[in-house]
Amino acid sequence: MSATVRLTGVGKKYGRTHTLRGLDLVLEPGVTGLLGPNGAGKTTLLRILATVLPPSEGRVRVLDLDPSDPRERTEVRRRLGYLPQELGFPSGFTAFAFVDYLAVLKEWTQADARHDEVRRVLGLVDLAGQSAKKVKALSGGQRRRLALAQALIGSPALMLLDEPTTGLDPEQRASLRGVLAEAARTSTVLLSTHQTNDVAALCERVVVLDAGRVCFNGAVRELLARAEGCVWLADEPHSSAISTWRTGTGRYRNLADPAPPGAELVEPTLEDAYLLLRSSAPALT
Amino acid sequence: MTTTWHVDDAALARWVDSTDGSISGASVEQHLLSCEQCRARVPAEPVLDAVWARVQDVVEVPPVSLLERALRRVGLPEADARIVAVSPAFRGAWLIGLATLLAFVTVAGGYGEGRGEWVFLAVAPLVPALAIALGYDPELDEALEQECATPYSRLRLVLLRSAALLVIAGPVFVATSLAVPGTIAFWWLAPAAGCTALVLALSTWVAPLTAVGGVATTWFVIVASIAQGGSPAEVVDERWVAVYATVCFAALVLLVVRRGRLATWRAT
Amino acid sequence: MTVTRSDAELMADIAGRDLAALRELYDRHAAWLAVRLRRRCNDAEVVADALQDTFVAVWDEAPRFRGDGEAAAWLWGIAVRRLVSRLRRRRDVAFLADLPSYAGPVAPAAEEQVLLSVEYGDLGTALARLSPEMRAVMQAVVLDGLTTREAAKVLKVPENTVKTRLHRAKAHLRTDLAEVTP
């Protein structure tokens, strides 16, 4: 099976500022996590893949198609689900009407089939009972799930999700993981997030962006392994720790590479590994 | 209500099958009104699922608006008809503000003598351009990013929505023209068309509201330079109208050529 | 969420456009409403239409539901009117105000006597003694809650006849009940 997404030397410039530069990236079916600090270029990358923005340089192949060709770009969009970071809702729409409107734009011309599909995706995000409510009557978490629902229309081959879990409570987050894991059996999902535990729970692969460049691209467990032996519990905070805090038991959890000899090591989390990677980022090329 | 007595199974079954009489049936019915437990014992028929599906269709699926139905009837595809019909939901509120602005400068144009007419000519032709830019500026329409990621044509989306917004605002423009005396009545629509087309074309490079800013600045300079030594009517004399028409045409050609780049995001 | 909402709470949520609440109300009430409607009209299609109209009307009118009343009675009030209005469009289908099986002189079975006396006391026995025409009017107006005008339409008799029969039926009942409970 060929890669769903293949980027070669992709860059994006706004005036003189590069938000992305020299990006090489291959995405395959399954969920890939996209981590990175604010301003690292995550949103720009997603917009380029979503064919909303053209890249300034480099080659983009999505679903074996070339998005710079108008006809192939339309074909890409037919097989794409996209959740932008911020999504506005036109005033006066109900939840159902909003998803239905986007389904119309996604060429669901047969009304009965379209309505069934709208109900299906609203059901997936647990909003079936709220479908007749006006969008402005929904809570923040419900709106976020509504935004996600439209990205699921037609079970697209490529799903680009920009922070889908913000504003969700733990139960909703768990149920969302179920939906994404299910979708990832047949689709390629790129999940941009600040939640390292979502990545740890869902993704096999993770890409870390920093200042428009890829600073890690590999298996989640590989990133995790880098923090092995770097996290320990002690009675005192470590002076040169990357992160240190007093835990509920009164002891300090320290992260530094490497841990001092004889330290009481504990299992690192993906967040530890991410912070460790970030702290050494300037050294990477 | 606490009822200790309940309809027995046999009587309930006869009621369900209508094999009892209407008198004892009436008793069962009277009892059911106040007894949740007995109501729950009435078996659900398979047809109830189908009826529910119909109920759900009526209450959940938004009714197709009159406008959308009319557009479908004249042969517009469903997606186009829907986009036009829902256009007021995108920036409908802004239109009211713009109409108010237009009314204000119209009053100035009608009663303010020379100076009022200048104000009218400087502002009114920019109003339609601003109206459509509000309809698809990414900053204001955050659903636009979604819309642009669908296979539906971006140019078609922007043009249909712009057309819909202009048609909604149409009566205001006509009223404006009727209220303003002299040659500038109606002829103000010529620079208005030029500005509108230019904003559409420029937004293949920059964000729509930025384009409005650029066009507005240029327009103010033109009006001000004519105002140096002429009368308001000169802004819409034959030579200038020819210029507006040329700009309008050239901008539309440019728009079609560069349609793939329509709707540009600012750097984030 | 496992908390069960009362009918009145469901009604309030329906007023807030909660479709799940409407579904719950439907699951609770559609079955018995369907049976009761079917006892008034033997055309399955008309009954299904009336039931659909009923819940669509509930969706629209939920804000007007007064929380202290019995939801079931309120629902029946809507359902029977929806049925009447559906029947107006279908002249070939009749409103059955009276089921024929006990129209004859056969005395009700013992357990039904109990049923009758519990809900209606001696009224039930008295009702049984009325003529079918009078009973139909009693059923439509007193038990089903139709107005005399609506009853006249569905029974296909002039409104005045309905009023007369109703008047007479009530007189009969009064006499009957006076005999039983002096």
Explain this structure.
- The complex is a heterotrimer of chains A (285), B (268) and C (182).
- In chain A, 32% of the residues lie in helices and 26% in strands.
- Chain A is of the alpha/beta class and 285 residues long.
- In chain A, helix 3 (95-105) packs across helix 4 and helix 3 (95-105) packs parallel to helix 5 (140-151).
- Chain B is mainly α.
- Chain C has helices at residues 7-15, 19-40, 44-61, 71-89, 110-120, 123-128, 132-143, 148-155, 159-180.
- Chain C is an all-alpha fold.
- Chains in contact: A-B, A-C, B-C.
Radius of gyration of chain A: 21 Å
- How many alpha or pi helices of chain C? 9
Give the largest chain-chain interface (CB within 8 Å).
B-C, 43 and 46 residues
The assembly state of the depicted protein chains is heterotrimer
Mean pLDDT of chain A: 89
Report strand order across the widest sheet of chain A: 5-6-7-3-8-9
Low-confidence stretches of chain A: none
Count of DSSP strands of chain C: 0
What can be said about the biggest beta sheet of chain C?
A: none
Provide the helix percentage of chain C.
55-70%
- Helix/strand/pairing class of chain C, anyone? mainly alpha
Mean pLDDT of chain C, nearest integer? Answer: 81
The computed structural class of chain A is alpha/beta
State the share of residues found in helices of chain A, binned by percent. Answer: 25-40%
Order of SSEs of chain C, N→C? HHHHHHHHH
Q: Termini separation of chain C (Å)? A: 56 Å
| Strand segment tally of chain A | 13
Summarize the structure.
Chain B has 268 residues and is an all-alpha fold. Chain B has 15 helices and no strands. Chain C has 9 helices and no strands.
Which features would summarize this protein structure in a list?
heterotrimer; A: 285 residues; six-stranded mixed beta sheet; four-stranded antiparallel beta sheet; 9 helices; 13 strands; 32% helix; globular; C: 182 residues; mainly alpha; 0% strand
